[in-house]
Every structure is written in structure tokens, then in C-alpha cells.
Amino acid sequence: MTGHSSETKHLAKSDQVMRRLIREVGPFFLTPQSKRSPFESLARAIAYQQLHEKAAESILRRFVDLFPARRFPQPADLLAMDEDAIRGAGFSRAKIAALRDLAAKTLDGTVPTGAIVRTLDDEAIIERLIAVRGVGRWTVEMLLIFQLGRPDVLPVDDFGVRNGFRIAYGRRSMPTPKDVLRYGERWKPYRTAAAWYLWRAADRAREAKKVQGVKV
Questions:
Q1: Of 156, 202, 196, nearest in space to 8 by CA
Q2: Could you tell me the domains of the chain?
Q3: Is 65 annotated in the active site?
Q4: H helical segments located in 29-92
Q5: What would the pLDDT profile of 65-79 be if each residue is shown by its tens digit?
Q6: Which residue among the candidates 121, 152, 158, 203 is catalytic per the annotation?
Q7: pLDDT-derived band of residue 215, with 50, 70 and 90 as boundaries?
């Protein structure tokens, strides 16, 4: 999804703050990782929970290195792997339990294949996948955005989205998820693009503070 397309045209027309963000940031660009299975996408999302990006990526690299050919494991491979070895890669015990439950629920069909998941609507996918231990709505929303490329996902529990909203809209305090959800009604049916611009607003503010020498 690139360029000043239907997403940016709609956002610019419906919201003057979004219009300014689009002008400052540039075209909306998101390339979903469509070849990843739901199992891999969720496993990666579990790794990222409550961690900075670099730390999560480091853990994932060590995790993948545990398996033959150093490729992302299949569910059965993960279940067969020694738990202490996974722990040594950097996963907490809670995340290991979540990964093992994810693998088991992939094998029993609770977590659908990539072909099946693409036939389901957003809420059906969320309802099905939150049955996995350690997987909440936010984790599934990341899959909807970054694997499936769904156009109308607004992850209001995401700190970056809410912080970007606070910055872009000049709020003194952090908005609640309900605040963002209510305001975001005007962004339908392109709330994924709106979330993307809010992330960019938060990134830009963080980079500006670094340039100014402010600790972030």
C-alpha cells in the first residue's frame, strides 16, 4: 500500500490533523509479511511483548539458531525443543508457556493456517486467536496489520498509537483507548493508515528529542 491513495485522501478529507501529518510524513507505506504463517507472526509478536525492538530481535535470532537450518521452527519443532534451551535464547518462562500453547493450538487447528485465516473477518480472527495463552487483542491486531494487511485496524491499546495521538493532537495527557477509538470513527474504513501515521508522529517526536539532547 503506497502513495497518496484512497487511504490518505480519505484521512486528509475527514481530519485536518491527519491532513497535516500526511503532508509532513509523506505517503502511507506498509508492506505486509504475507508469506508468514499465523503461527510465526504470533510467535514473533509474543517475543516483542514488553520489549524494545532490538532486544526482541536479538532473542528471536538466538531462538531461530536453535533449530536445524536456522529457519523459523514449525509448531512440532518448537514443542520438541528443550525448554531450557529456549530459556537460554532469552525468553521468559511465561513467554515459553505462551509459545508452547501457540504451537499446540496450531497443531489442533485453533490457530488457522494462512489460507484459512485470510477468509475470516477481523473480529472472527481476534476471537479465535485470543484463545492462545499470552495472546491478547493487541497481539492479534499486529497480525491483522503486519501479516494480513487489513485496512481498518486501530490498535487503541498500543502505547505508540496513543502517544502519537497525544502528540499530533496537542493533548496534555495520554488519551485513553476509548478516547482514541471514539475519535477514530472518522477514519473508517482506513484506520490502519491512521494508526501508521500516529506511529510516525511518535517516532518523529522521539527523534526530535534525541537531536535536542533530551533523554527519552
A1: 196
A2: 6-27+154-211 (1.10.1670.40), 38-146 (1.10.340.30)
A3: no
A4: 38-48, 53-65, 75-80, 83-89
A5: 999 888 999 999 999
A6: 158
A7: low
